[in-house]
Amino acid sequence: METTENTIERKIEIDAPLHKIWDALTNSKQFGKWFGVKLESEFVEGNTTLGMNTLKGFEMKMEFRIKKIQPQSYFSYSWIPFPLDQSFDYTKEEPTLVEFFLVEKGDKTELRVKESGFDLITASRRAEAFRMHSGGWDAQLKNIESFVLNA
């Protein structure tokens, strides 16, 4: 899909019913399995869920600020992208917005992810965060597809 300097968009059509994709996105235990993060609590609109990325070499604390949950169609959160450098003060940075859109297509489900707001990231780390997330979303869509099809 589309990629600009501010926004990453990807989509995939998964051969699974919408409710399975929805559960994999919004159930924090399932999300953690395919996303590679150990989460401390459920996803609740308006709350923040803390976690730790478990991918070897990318172990970092993460915060998912749950923005909106529209059952079976839309899920969004904000976060600080790629907060790997523990010496950097991320509290001075605006988070990006991650949005998931689901559309039923017969027996399949179209899942689209959009992450925007990279123009608000500190200039010295913007390009690297964008690059890492651009490739990251390619991988994560494959991960959720594999998780759902093999669950």
What can you tell me about this protein's structure?
By secondary structure, the protein is an alpha+beta fold. It has one domain: Alpha-D-Glucose-1,6-Bisphosphate, Chain A, domain 4. 30% of the residues lie in helices and 34% in strands. The chain has 3 helices and 7 strands. The protein has helices at residues 18-26, 28-35, 123-150; strands at residues 7-14, 37-39, 48-53, 61-70, 74-79, 96-105, 108-116. The two termini are 27 Å apart. The mean pLDDT is 93. Residues 15-147 form the Activator of Hsp90 ATPase homologue 1/2-like C-terminal domain. It comes from Leptospira biflexa serovar Patoc (strain Patoc 1 / ATCC 23582 / Paris).
Which spans have pLDDT < 50 for at least 5 consecutive residues? none
User: How would a crystallographer describe the biggest sheet?
Assistant: 7 strands, antiparallel
Residues in β-strands, percent: 25-35%
Summed up, the helix count is 3
Summarize the structure.
The protein is of the alpha+beta class. The chain contains three helices and seven strands.
